[in-house]
Write a sequence for this structure.
């Protein structure tokens, strides 16, 4: 069955956020981990999101992966392509947002695309081409210290301009125009295209702005942005009589077996969530130094969880504060400490699945990737939302698993209990 909208996400948890946004607005989406080779989209999916790990990959690699994803999405019937990146425009002076967007535009033979990372519900707004995080300019937010993509220029027109092909410039649709609504916006985009402006940053301060922008972009072959601007797209397809009413997020299947929580994120939010869960349920801490020394083993940890899971949920976590993480990194090196922990979670997840566990809650983007790979999950359907931006999902194919995968900083303090409480 043909899909309507095809999306390419530059990271894993951001892609889930987009699939959730589409589902919430009545467009069922399936999320793929990497480009599915030779596999058709399943019946009932109106959108497909291909999640890549291309945000900080070398530019050529990011472009090649994105083009491969685009080719597969077009083969599934996609009428419009959405390139999803972070609402803080995470990228470097070289890319990858500009180069990927330019390559997709060429591939689609399209004349113009927009750039709109705004996500007002999470405090990300764009005004006069400047990106704000809450009340601070992007360059004065915590993003200026990001280890991989430090964002020190809040002016998206200028910053994107540096990433674009030679002789290309970015234009701006300012908020004064956006607030005039979709007709004025569409006319302004056409006028800019007539002047040769192919790349247009669009201001947005509210969800209403995003809905109008979405409507104005109904005819664009390529749209780029955060998940926010995707909220207006399902309605375009409904208006055209292509998308049936009533679809969206799917109910979770009721599965036998216990539920395990695996937390490998060391972010502040996750540490709070771990502390809250450890008060009520059995918990086991993984220590990278002990893992390295052989004092702790993944199989032991899985056996410990197996015993407890018959009676209720259990938590295995490596989450630790900066001092402890620093000690582990000093002793083992940053990369090896992370790899040891990820490998341990991968083995634990596999052992638990073999023991019949079918429900996993995982905290941490990298940790989620390691666990999904170990479980052999290649595609996800999107279930109900747990906390903003984080849905329950379930895997396509055998065996069916329910998976809640959250990036470290997402979710309230009671996230794990809330997620567990939603299982049928
Ligand atoms: P987040 O979404 O918060 O960034 P990730 O799972 O993406 O979480 O990244 C956390 C990284 O930290 C992973 O590579 C993980 O293996 C590593 N890690 C987890 N616990 C520890 C620890 N106690 N010491 C050192 N590194 C750790």
């Amino acid at each position: 069955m043909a899909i309507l909208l095809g999306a390419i996400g530059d990271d894993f948890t951001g892609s889930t956020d987009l699939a959730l946004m589409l589902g919430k607005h009545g467009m069922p989406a399936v999320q793929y981990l990497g480009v599915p080779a030779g596999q058709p989209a399943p019946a009932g999916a109106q959108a497909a999101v291909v999640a890549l790990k291309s945000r900080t990959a070398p530019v050529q690699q990011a472009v090649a992966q994105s083009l491969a994803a685009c080719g597969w999405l077009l083969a599934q019937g996609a009428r419009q392509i959405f390139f999803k990146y972070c609402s803080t425009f995470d990228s470097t002076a070289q890319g990858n947002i500009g180069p990927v967007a330019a390559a997709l535009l060429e591939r689609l033979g399209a004349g113009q695309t927009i750039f709109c990372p705004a996500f007002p519900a999470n405090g990300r707004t764009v005004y006069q081409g400047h990106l704000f995080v809450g009340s601070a300019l992007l360059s004065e937010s915590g993003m200026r210290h990001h280890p991989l993509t430090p964002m020190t220029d809040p002016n998206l027109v200028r910053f994107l301009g540096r990433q674009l092909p030679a002789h290309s410039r970015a234009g701006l649709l300012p908020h004064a125009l956006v607030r005039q609504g979709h007709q004025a916006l569409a006319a302004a985009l056409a006028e800019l295209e007539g002047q040769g402006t192919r790349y247009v940053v669009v201001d947005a301060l509210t969800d209403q702005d995003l809905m109008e922008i979405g409507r104005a972009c109904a005819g664009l072959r390529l749209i780029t942005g955060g998940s926010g601007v995707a909220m207006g797209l399902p309605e375009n397809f409904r208006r055209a009589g292509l998308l049936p009413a009533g679809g969206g997020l799917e109910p979770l299947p009721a599965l036998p077996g216990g539920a395990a929580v695996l937390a490998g994120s060391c972010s502040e939010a996750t540490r709070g969530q771990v502390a809250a869960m450890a008060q009520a349920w059995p918990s086991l801490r993984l220590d990278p130094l002990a893992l390295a020394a052989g004092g702790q083993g993944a199989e032991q940890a899985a056996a410990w969880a197996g015993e407890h899971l018959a009676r209720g949920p259990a938590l295995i976590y490596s989450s630790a504060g900066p001092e402890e993480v620093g000690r582990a990194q000093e002793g083992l090196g940053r990369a090896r400490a992370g790899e040891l922990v990820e490998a341990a979670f991968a083995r634990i997840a596999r052992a638990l699945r073999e023991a019949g566990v079918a429900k996993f809650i995982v905290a941490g983007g990298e940790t989620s990737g390691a666990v999904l790979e170990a479980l052999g999950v290649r595609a996800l359907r999107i279930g109900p939302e747990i906390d903003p931006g984080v849905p329950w999902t379930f895997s396509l194919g055998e065996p069916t698993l329910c998976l809640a995968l959250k990036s470290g900083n997402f979710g309230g303090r009671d996230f794990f209990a809330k997620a567990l409480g939603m299982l049928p």
